[in-house]
Amino acid sequence: MSEGERLVVGAVLATAAVAACGSGGAPAMDKVFETEHFIYYRQAGAPAPCPSLGDWLERYYRAFEGFLGVSRPTLNKVSYHLYSDANASLAACSGAGRNCYLPSSETIVSLEPLKPHEIVHVFERLIGTPAPAPAMFSEGIATMLGGSVGPPREDGRLDTSLDIENLLGSKAFYARTDDVGPAITYSAAAGFMRFLLDRYGKDAFLSMYGGLDNVSESAEVERQFEATVGEALRDVIAAWQTAVAPPYDEVVLNTPLCDQLRALAPDGSTVLDPGCAFDAARFDVPISGRLDVLLHRIPGQAAESLAFAHVYRCEGGVPLDAGIFVRGELHLALDVAPGTYMLSIDGAQVSAVNAAQPVTLDLDAACTTGRIAAAIGGPDSGSLLVVRRWVAPETGLALDLDIGSAGQLGLGGVSTELAMPYDVYACPQACVADPDQQCGHDSLPGVQTMGEPRDVFGMRVAAGDRLHLETGPRIKPAWQYSLQLSVDLTTP
Q1: Are 301 and 348 in contact (CB under 8 A)?
Q2: Are residues 94 and 115 in the same domain?
Q3: Which tens digits make up the pLDDT trace of 346-364?
Q4: Which domain, by its residues, includes 12?
Q5: 193-223 pLDDT tens trace
Q6: What CATH number corresponds to the domain at position 53?
Q7: Residue 263 to residues 74, 153, 291: CA-CA distances in angstroms?
Q8: What is the model's pTM?
């Protein structure tokens, strides 16, 4: 949120917060570092920012400046104030929240070392004129570009039921936010902004947004919107509410940041060094939707430093929803919608290589010739992570595993939030006519609760074995799951 939009709503809170700070006024802030566009300050007790934080501030600065097509009119640097005291940050934001942007002093106030949402506010205020847009629009665009949404509906989709037609005025929007929380109102606002962006295209969307400058009353918001786009705002809201809601994680648009990242090397490896924050690179998934990336934790690092990987679709969506630890070598087999994606690593250094050939993933357990198996186990403790994200679920999946070391077949990284395969069969070869009779069989829900039988996961395997796996239908129709397969050297 930004200064001047919630001063009345937060007046009582601000008074209490200032009182809690004592009579000394605002707390002392120590200057930590300076970049091309930022001066970073820290209150005593706040986490010490790491050196790479400045690079990410500048990436987000360029990302939002470029996407929104605006430039700041002054040469002043943005002050970023990292607070440790929640009451002090609340007072600095005049009681409007604990994170905010103050345009009069070009200052970001935050309890978080990096708050992209507030960096968006630096630039969205400049679309059209520097006057503020209606709160639902300004908080919606800041969340769409620099935030996160949630909670989702039970089916994993965005909840579009909020009566945003009654929240067009800024006071009404913030009053409802105080009642139900920003997770509800900001998420709905972001979803509607994404709907408008997709409906009209970026140029028309930004023109409409600029036309709402200094408009805060509901009736004037409706009048100005219709004058700009030629449609009644309430009719457009109704169209959004009656359309099929998107997966909730597809509301956030990652394209501006993706455009600032280097691409994974087409040949050879790319080192991702998170330092004390995180590192990221982009890559393109072809029209087939199949791409494999080999991740390898670089040896020689402290044993306690764990590498953690996420995958984001730049146009929206998080195929690897819970993230995954990279221990040794991880073969990431993506079966996802084509487009540009972002691989993010935090913790330890990792090398990433585009696999020359993806492993064979037979949808609907079809049998094909020239199958390419995935190697698991071996000296690098390799594992395979299959990540699938398509709106239309398949009935089953088939793949082959080449075992590199003796142990037990391990299972991990299963996404249970949406839908996973119900059954897994381990067969001696492909194209078994009746896997229920001829193959080992586990029910994944049974495995997850350590129920019996466990004929697949935990089975003994030896170096040189080739194992054929097939999955049964999904537990429920949804669009995504992940499944990690490894050789476990320990006894369960």
Answers
A1: yes
A2: yes
A3: 999 999 999 988 999 987 7
A4: 1-126
A5: 999 999 999 999 999 999 999 999 999 999 9
A6: 3.40.30
A7: 32, 34, 15
A8: 0.90
